[in-house]
Amino acid sequence: MNKLGKDVSEKVVSNENNGQQNPLKKKIIALIVLFICIAYILNPGLGFFEFIPDNLPFIGNLDEAGATMLLIKCFNILRDK
To answer: Within 13 A of 14's CA, how many CA atoms are on the CB side?
Structure first.
């Protein structure tokens, strides 16, 4: 195989694995993020640590909504086989 063909075949093989993580690694990351989201939503700091303060009108609960969406995404990743 010539050098150009070898370079192209190496790029094709590397692009197949590009963007795909090991399924176990992906589930471990999802589990860690899941626990962080649960801790953020339960708010053990009693409001001392928040990305967006809850007393701001209309946008105060957007960080909790984002954490909830991330929590649902983590559940979906962990549920997949």
So the answer is: 6
Could you give the angle at which helices 23-42 and 62-79 cross, rounded to 10 degrees? 150
CA distance 78 to 56: 34
pTM: 0.64
Amino acid occupying residue 67: A
Q: Digits of tens for pLDDT over the chain (81 positions)?
A: 555 544 544 554 444 555 566 888 999 999 999 999 998 888 766 667 777 777 788 787 888 889 999 999 999 999 986
